[in-house]
Task: inverse folding
């Protein structure tokens, strides 16, 4: 994330742009959008607030699209290894767009709104690539409708459900990864019980013109505070969740990334998705490298790109995400290491500014998930 | 009364009795955000003017700190290593980084004074 320069006007703005600026948001360029990296309280305070109460994140830069048609789930299965035919109405599932060599084009959330519609939520940095890939890969019986005029808000934290239930009591009954079409503050919203923090919470897709009123309504609740992309990143790192472009990309496979759980059983057996040959081979024989958590002994952060060195001095891999964990008051990271080094407790060293910092493989997540089950 | 100077890298230098205390400015800590780690030079290290000699890591990024004057490090701030957030709370007081015995006290005159630094911030 780069602080905004005079070329700020070339960036897209989100529907809550004015609200962010009025709230003291520090705007940075992210995936072509001006987005708040933090507000006046700072990243650590925003992070802790989310773990303790409820935080409102604007993630309207993310891509949203609908797939229309009875055949949508079957058609999308040609592009992702997730079981989408088995996804009932009112449920959402994590999925990966894979390429022919088993790499990940993007990770996305797929919600079945009803028999004829799937709602997709795509990474901001990948939405153009994804939409082109989907348009090329879907049959004419399925219509792809990008939802450029919708905002996306995430309300996350242990008090999120109590807050949102004041606007729509139905959300209390929504299970983890449940999705519903609801009216919130007069806005027709798609609400899913999901998020990117490891906490209970919701992602709310709403019409852009209603986003500010809804955000103000939520912020009026005493539990709720704004949180920016900085806290979103430190929260997802503690939760062991991948960031596309750092922890996963077109050269990492779902098996290497520890995301093979998102491949449906029926899909594994049928091997009828892009990259199935590579992925099946890795499932059978184990990948040569795997994503792991790393906890450093000291406080010095090890960031993406830092080399990972084995105890015997040999090259072990590289850090893909790293930073300070406010919950653990420690330096944590994720990265890929050789298959012989993946066991929790394995001692490794991370090269930071020509120093070797001691670290150990740590189970993921670093902070237990607290999803509503 | 110590003599206070600044650099365009947003460091402050307070010269008192021939020893320069060095830290980063309120503007710098505001721009960095929450500081989570500080790496300071060893006492006794000899620094060239402009040499990268300390690192400050915020939640977002790592930044180098440059020696504003040539000289020898005589002391570092142990409280800052224990509690890096001191930089955010008291950047121009308890959040100092290190103390330096400058080779040439006259070099201080080449740095910005408070009015120059304030004018420089206006241009950013």
Result:
């Amino acid at each position: 994330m780069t602080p905004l320069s005079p070329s700020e006007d070339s960036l897209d703005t989100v529907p809550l742009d004015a609200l962010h600026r009025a709230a003291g948001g520090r705007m940075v360029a992210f995936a072509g959008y001006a987005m708040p990296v933090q507000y006046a309280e700072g990243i650590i305070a925003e992070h802790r607030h989310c773990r303790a109460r409820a935080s409102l994140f604007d993630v309207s830069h993310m891509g949203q699209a609908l797939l229309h048609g009875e055949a949508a789930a079957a058609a999308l299965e040609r592009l992702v290894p997730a079981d989408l035919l088995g996804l009932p109405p009112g449920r959402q599932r994590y999925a990966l767009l894979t390429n022919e060599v088993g790499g990940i084009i993007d990770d996305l959330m797929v919600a079945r709104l009803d028999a004829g519609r799937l709602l997709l939520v795509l990474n901001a940095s990948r939405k153009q690539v994804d939409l082109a890939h989907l348009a090329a890969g879907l049959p004419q019986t399925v219509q792809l409708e990008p939802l450029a005029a919708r905002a996306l808000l995430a309300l996350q934290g242990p008090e999120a459900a109590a807050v949102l239930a004041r606007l729509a009591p139905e959300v209390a009954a929504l299970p983890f990864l449940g999705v519903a079409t609801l009216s919130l503050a007069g806005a027709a919203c798609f609400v899913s019980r999901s998020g990117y923090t490891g906490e209970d919470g919701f992602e709310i897709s709403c019409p852009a013109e209603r986003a500010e009123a809804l955000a103000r309504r939520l912020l009026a609740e005493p539990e709720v505070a704004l949180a920016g992309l900085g806290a979103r990143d430190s929260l997802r790192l503690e939760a062991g969740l991948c960031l596309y472009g750092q922890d996963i990309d077109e050269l990492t496979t779902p098996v290497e990334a520890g995301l093979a759980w998102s491949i449906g059983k029926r899909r594994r057996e049928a091997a009828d998705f892009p990259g199935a040959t590579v992925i099946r081979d890795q499932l059978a024989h184990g990948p040569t490298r795997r994503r792991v958590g790393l906890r450093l002994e000291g406080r010095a952060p090890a960031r993406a790109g830092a080399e990972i060195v084995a105890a015997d001095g040999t090259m072990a891999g590289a850090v893909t995400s790293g930073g300070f964990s406010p919950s653990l008051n420690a330096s944590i990271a994720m990265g890929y290491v050789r298959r012989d080094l993946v066991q929790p407790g394995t001692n490794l060293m991370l090269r930071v500014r020509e120093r070797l910092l001691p670290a150990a493989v740590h189970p993921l997540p670093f902070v237990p998930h607290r999803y509503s089950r | 009364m110590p003599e206070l100077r600044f650099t365009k890298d947003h460091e402050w230098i307070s010269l008192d009795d021939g020893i320069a205390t060095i830290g980063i400015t309120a503007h710098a800590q505001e721009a960095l955000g929450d500081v989570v780690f500080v790496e300071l030079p060893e006492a006794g290290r000899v620094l060239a003017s402009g040499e990268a000699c300390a690192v400050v890591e915020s939640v977002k990024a790592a930044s180098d700190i440059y020696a504003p004057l040539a000289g020898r490090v005589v002391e570092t701030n142990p409280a800052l290593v224990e509690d890096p957030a001191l930089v955010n709370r008291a950047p121009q007081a308890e959040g100092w980084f290190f103390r330096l015995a400058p080779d040439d006290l006259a070099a201080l005159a080449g740095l910005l004074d408070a009015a120059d630094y304030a004018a420089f911030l206006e241009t950013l």
About this structure: The domain at 4-116 of chain B is CATH 2.40.50.100 (OB fold (Dihydrolipoamide Acetyltransferase, E2P)). Chain B has four helices and nine strands.
